[in-house]
Design a protein that fits this description.
The complex is a heterodimer of chains A (about 450) and B (about 850). Chain A has 2 domains: about 5-280, Rossmann fold (3-Layer(aba) Sandwich), CATH 3.40.50; about 285-425, no CATH class. Helix content of chain A is about 40%, strand content about 15%. Chain A has helices at about 55-65, 70-75, 90-100, 105-110, 145-155, 170-180, 195-200, 210-225, 260-270, 285-295, 320, 325-335, 340-350, 360-365, 380-390, 400-410, 420-425, 435-445; strands at about 10-20, 25-30, 35-40, 80, 140, 160-165, 185-190, 230, 245, 250, 275-280. In chain A, helix 1 packs antiparallel against helix 8. Chain B has about 850 residues and is α/β, with parallel strands linked by helices. Chain B has 4 domains: about 1-240, 3-Layer(aba) Sandwich (Carbamate kinase); about 320-485, VC0802-like (2-Layer Sandwich); about 545-750, Alpha-Beta Barrel (TIM Barrel), CATH 3.20.20; about 755-865, Lyase, Ornithine Decarboxylase, Chain A, domain 1 (Beta Barrel). Chain B is about 35% helix and about 20% strand. Chain B has 33 helices and 35 strands. Chain B has an 8-stranded mixed beta sheet, with helices on both faces. In chain B, strands 19, 29, 30, 31, 32, 33, 34 and 35 form an 8-stranded mixed beta sheet that branches. In chain B, strands 20-21-22-23-24-26-27-28 form an 8-stranded parallel barrel, surrounded by 4 helices. In chain B, strand 27 (about 705-710), helix 31 (about 725-740) and strand 28 form a beta-alpha-beta unit. In chain B, helix 3 runs antiparallel to helix 4, helix 4 packs antiparallel against helix 5 and helix 22 packs parallel to helix 23. The longest helix of chain B has 25 residues, at about 120-145. The chains are: A alpha/beta (about 450), B alpha/beta (about 850). Chain B: GO terms for molecular function: aspartate kinase activity; ATP binding; diaminopimelate decarboxylase activity. Chain B: Belongs to the Orn/Lys/Arg decarboxylase class-II family.
Amino acid sequence: MPLSDPRQSSAFRFVRADYAEGEARLVYAFDHGPELVERIVFPDAPELPLERRQAFAQALKLLHLIAGVSYYKAGVPAQILVENGPLDATTAQLLQALYLHGLGEFAYQNKLDLREHIHFPHAGLHEPVPALGLPARSLVPIGGGKDSLVTVELLKQAGESATAAWVGNSPLIAACVVQTGLPGLNISRQLAPELFEYNKAGAWNGHIPVTAINSAILAVAAVLYGYDSIVFSNERSASSATLEYAGFAVNHQWSKGWEFEQSLAAWLRSHVAADLNYCSLLRPLSELAVTRLFARESRYDGVFSSCNRNFRILGPRPADRWCGQCPKCHFVFLALAPFLPKPRLLGIFGRNLLDDESQMQGFDALMEFREHKPFECVGEGRESRAAMFALSQRPEWREDAVVARFVATVLPQLERAELALEPLLQPSAVHGLPPRLGAIADAFR
Amino acid sequence: MNSLETAPGAHAGWIVVKFGGTSVSTRPRWDTICRIARDWHAQGKRVLIVVSALSGITDKLKTIAEARGDRDKREAVRAEILDRHEAMFAELGLSDRATLQYWLDRLTALSQDSRAENAELPWQAEVLALGEQLSSTLGVAYLNTLGLPAHWLDARRHLLAQALPNQTAWGTYLSASVPTAPDLALAAKLAGEGEVFISQGFMARNAGGETVILGRGGSDTSAAYFGALLKAEKVEIWTDVAGMFSANPRIVPSARLLSRLDYEEAQEIATTGAKVLHPRCLNPVREAQVPLVVRDTNRPELAGTEIGASILAAAPSVKAVSERRGITLISMESIGMWQQVGFLADVFARFKHHGLSIDLISSAETNVTVSLDPSENLVNSDVLSALAADLAEVCRVKVIAPCTAVTLVGRGMRSLLPRLASVLAEFDLLRVHLVSQSSNNLNLTIVVDEAAADGLVPTLHAALIKAEALRAEDPAVFGPAWSELYADRLAPPAPPWWRQRREELLQLAQQQGPCYVYDLASVRARARALRGLLAPDRWFYALKANSHDEVLRCIAAEGLGLECVSLAELERAAQFVDSSRLLFTPNFAPRDEYAAAFARGARVTLDNLHPLQHWGETFRGRDIILRVDLGSGRGHHDKVRTGGAGSKFGLSLDQLDEFHALARGLDLAVVGLHAHLGSGILDAGHWREVYAQLAALAQRFGRIEAINIGGGLGVPARPGDAPLDLAALDAFLCEIKTAYPQFQLWLEPGRYLVAEAGVLLARVTQTKRKGEYRYVGVDTGMNSLIRPALYEAWHEIVNLSRCDEPATTLYQVVGPICESGDVLGTNRRLPACQDGDVLLIAQAGAYGATMASHYNLRAPATECVV
């Protein structure tokens, strides 16, 4: 029987979450519609030690609440029901913020005001939990792009014991993991098939805060396998808003931002284990500082990709990994260009995006010139402008179509003093790293 | 001379045979070496065997040579090398290990040498030389146990390297050259020492007596040096492929073996891309006029490629097409005055200063553009940046990269230009940056964007054969196709169905006149093969290929849907399948056809904004499939004719947002995405590409259920064309499907299902002779089968009445239509044809009868099924 349009439903229900033999089952429903079951499989899951059971239950509960965003957004009903008991105030606050900001772009694209809809019921407060004595080692999520590979190299240099973790079955990410030389942990995730049926019935669709979901999955994994740190690779620029809409800042990568990192880290310490760290190694750095670090190591040139259009597929040719048309391709190309020998960069992409007139508009958007910054995880406008300016000073780049046009048209409208690369490469002191990893960040400065 | 004449066995000539790493790494391979050497020896020749190091050993030695302070790494790799040779020693069943131990001890001493810390060049050379010293030592011992007395010959004793002007210290030790000229005294002296020798590739000595290394391609070069020194009768390079081919066989399986090349052509082919032989090894043998042969160790029965002085009286022909990737072009625009004196000198001095060697040059009054081959240096250092900064002092610099240089090689290239018209047409829509015709008249090179170069070489190779610019049929130059030599893993193609039904077909032709005959069993077999693939969810047969009722009934019975492009096709299809299996994919159809298709319940594909802009009510609230044109962004699709702005099919990707907006306004749901790549594609990788692109695109839509990647599944026409590998296709599709399980996968093949199932039978009317041309005419032509005229399609033609007679006459097979293009086949070797003979034109089941006409008021061939 075809499913009814979830937009007509009146409540979204968090039904239950359970775990057995390496598989977590997260159950949701719209009104009294069919149960939507998401399955997450943790490979070779060990028997859970008794002392970690409470922590595990908390992490699983959070995963249930966070992963619900994929389903909730299909209908955005007016009521949210959490069936296995009310949330404490801190938890409700975390979710309130995540659903509101993490779905900000979704709301903007669908012309919705979520402030009227998102209310997580809560009652009471939570007692902080003790430390669990988790082993001192790190789970490093790998996304296939440059950032996590920079983190891996930094951790390796620092002698940190680390495991490369990824969710889903991307062959490209798997190939990157092989290149890291680290042990790998591949967690699989299967959405409830009914979600596709709901899509056919007219469900709302759009961007969701996937980094938050992956973070919650890794929190469960950290307790299950025994890691005291989850080390993401989000940088400083992830915190800046893409645009303002109806008096509300919309940030495409909100769940990669500093605010979310801090609140999730605090929640994990108070609700799961006082010694569980959730942090981002690249937080003090700008995108440009990260690309400069990436340039040091060429082992990933032939396997990595930051492109969101082609990223699921691994092919031998650059065009299989980089579509060459999307904001991510534009930005990564531009941000790497000042730091890589030109032939190496062109070898990675298989073509020269900066010598292609049809790509002008894409680069304009990155520089926030006549366009707003794209809804993608790309650096700040001033970083793009500084990178472009640096190229315009380099004879091997300055005759390329996009760079030459920047010199002729864009540059005269810019303040030269704001175009220097060096200040943008300076790290900030802001990060949430545990002492063991703090030294790596200190070395940036 | 005297000594030579008086030496025992003085008249025995020398043969130099060279074996690479894989050929010296197992005992059976050494048995092969022994057999080859013994054969020559039995023919009264003296044999010098030149060997490489065991597979992988040179890389390990390189690791030691470059490890510098990393003592642990050196020690670990040293242990690996030791183990490998101990294992080889055991495998060969040798007992006396004294000599081997000498070299292993030397390895230990060198890896602990204090010079390792600074990676001193003379030390590095000594380290790198060990691989061949070890392998030749093992070889000598083994051949002697087999009863072939072989002598160990120290290559450094005879090859004296000479430093080149401007050579770096690195070059003098690790990329040395040896000037060689025949030295008959040496030949005589060696003849006095024995009859079979084993020496080391890759090394020589310098004037100071130190060991030096020859650099890349070193062992082949060593063999060439020895061949020249000894004025050998022949140098044989034994490798794992039968020789040089007319293109890289990995990308062009139909590439032909080159049986015979002159030195210059071989040099050119090796320089422009062929990997089988290093270009450095040709000069020594050319100077000494020693023939060099490339042969396959696994297939000694093949004669290989023989390289020698130019062939007498061969017609000019393109010999090979090759490509080099990763080319960087530097375009320099003079900023000084017109005819600025010394501009080129200024520019070139800067390249020299940065140690960059220029390959191609093209110049104009105020511009010069040069190419740089890819090098480690260029990719991993700032040399290009520094060069550009220096050049900017005297000109405006533009760096154009990455480029691919495609080169046609053949002696007398300029005289071949008229034949290249249709070949050069393949560059249509590609960005050509530079064209260079070499001053020695051996090559024509065209430099294009690398992103656009995929698939170019196979296309050019086919076009060269079609244009007879590459005279593949000339046995003096060309041997068999690579796929014929090496594709024996694949089952030999089954004989076509019509061979077994010859009598029946002859009878039909006599009764019916010109007719198409379709074999339904073949159609069924093809349909089942496709349905057996795992990845596709649904198949739609494109009935424009063949819409005969019995064919449609048969395909419908196999469970395929039908893909229609007109209302009339839709109406015919509806007689055989229900509406859930109807797919309507028209192009520029009138409004009422869409309305009729919706009324019939067919799935409808749109590929334009116009219907939504102007006929919105027809589409309101409907589900549709959107056909897009992926061509514009991806160069290698441009040349397939259904992509790019020059093609009338598909919605341009830059109109997607507008389409979305229109669709939203009409409450229209886009439930499928479709693109069609082109036709006759035999490379399974193409569909992977279009599938991946469509699936990535589909994520931008909310309600996509199916991805239709079109058809174009090729059917091999010529002998030597490898058939489409369905298993490989399925594997590619499954890979993408795993990444995007939420979308159904649809395909819509046409020709693939029916081409081979159909033949056209025609009777000979007249024969004619005009000059050197022989014509055979038949009673139907382009009015029945227009593909040869329209697409230059190649169909096999046989004289069915005389199948068993030898094919003696070269015919142009023509029809009766008053049109000079009414040719069914050119240059076909057939038995002498007689009035009334039945000719069979094969693979005519697709786009034959459906494209037939009554031109000249001649009724086209009738159709029947068997």
